[in-house]
TrEMBL record:
Residues 49-153 form the BPL/LPL catalytic domain. It holds the Pfam family BPL_C. Signal peptide: none annotated. Residues 222-269 form the Biotin protein ligase C-terminal domain. InterPro entries: aa-tRNA-synth_II/BPL/LPL, Biotin_CoA_COase_ligase, BPL_C, BPL_LPL_catalytic. This is biotin--[biotin carboxyl-carrier protein] ligase. CDD domains: BPL.
Length: 271
């Protein structure tokens, strides 16, 4: 772990603390709890730039409290603490954080693992296994303490077909990755996240101005497809995904001839 810390915690880096634990329930829950305890005790939250990595998670969560199950040492399981408000980014732009993280994950895995990935709006990382699109990773952003955000990432790296939690899941190994060494994969993802987060903050959270909006659209497998958006309140909306707008929302062109932005919900690729 010392080598990992030395590689990431350096002058000018976003990362100021990197910890690796063998086993925990959820790295996201751990950092959110630390942020809350810190705020209550000292009037300040967790602080920015903390990275918590786990070799195994026993109670990992995805969006909508879905469970994330994977064998020990089979993937990347980590969370980071961010404070975009301290950099002057308005809260209404914080919805870009899962998308920004997705771009960093996709580019890092491509560089260090030699595997093609795509992004499914808003927070899934896809790979191709046997000609089929499979989910290999997910991203979860949660409010933490006073003005903080914890972003968690889970990526299936070395899982075999018989280890997948569901048949429709995938892994980097099954997608033909050149390397499944988790150390360089993690370093590449965290360096990419440092870079994109810095650009985004410097632009005041303007995803268009810093190039994030364009980069996300270029890697998004959802755009150009007919999808069904399963919305809160048991509503559903079907249309072609035509854009990701300046607020990070998915814009659907419906059969009624209107364009409707979707800010939250499950997206099902129909074709």
């Amino acid at each position: 772990m010392g080598a990992l810390r030395r590689a990431l915690v350096r002058e000018g880096s976003l990362w100021r603390e990197v910890d690796v634990v063998q086993r925990t329930g959820s790295t996201n829950s751990d950092l959110v709890a630390r942020a809350g305890a810190g705020a209550a005790r000292a009037g300040a939250g967790l602080g920015e730039g903390v990275v918590l990595v786990a070799e195994e998670q026993t109670d990992a969560r995805g969006r909508l409290d879905r469970k994330w199950v994977a064998p020990a040492r089979s993937g990347l399981f980590f969370s980071v603490s961010l404070r975009p408000g301290d950099a002057g980014v308005p809260m209404e732009r914080w919805g870009w954080l899962p998308l920004l993280t997705g771009v960093a994950v996709a580019t890092g895995l491509a560089r260090a693992g030699g595997v093609d990935t795509a992004l499914k709006w808003p927070n899934d990382v896809l790979v191709t296994v046997g000609g089929e699109e499979r989910k290999a990773g997910g991203i979860l952003a949660e409010a933490a303490g006073d003005g903080g955000v914890v972003v968690g990432v889970g990526v299936n790296v070395s899982l075999r077909a018989d280890e997948l939690p569901v048949p429709t899941a995938g892994s980097l190994a099954l997608a033909g990755a050149v390397s499944t060494d988790r150390d360089p994969l993690l370093r590449a993802v965290l360096r990419g996240l440092d870079d994109w987060y810095g650009r985004w903050c410097a632009a005041g959270g303007d995803a268009g101005a810093c190039g994030l909006q364009e980069a996300y659209a270029a890697g998004c497998a959802t755009l150009g497809r007919v999808v069904r958006a399963e919305l809160p309140g048991d509503r559903a909306l079907v249309g072609e995904a035509v854009a990701v707008d300046g607020d990070g929302r998915l814009v659907l062109a419906t059969e009624a001839g209107v364009q409707e932005p979707v800010g939250a919900g499950d997206i099902v690729h129909l074709r």
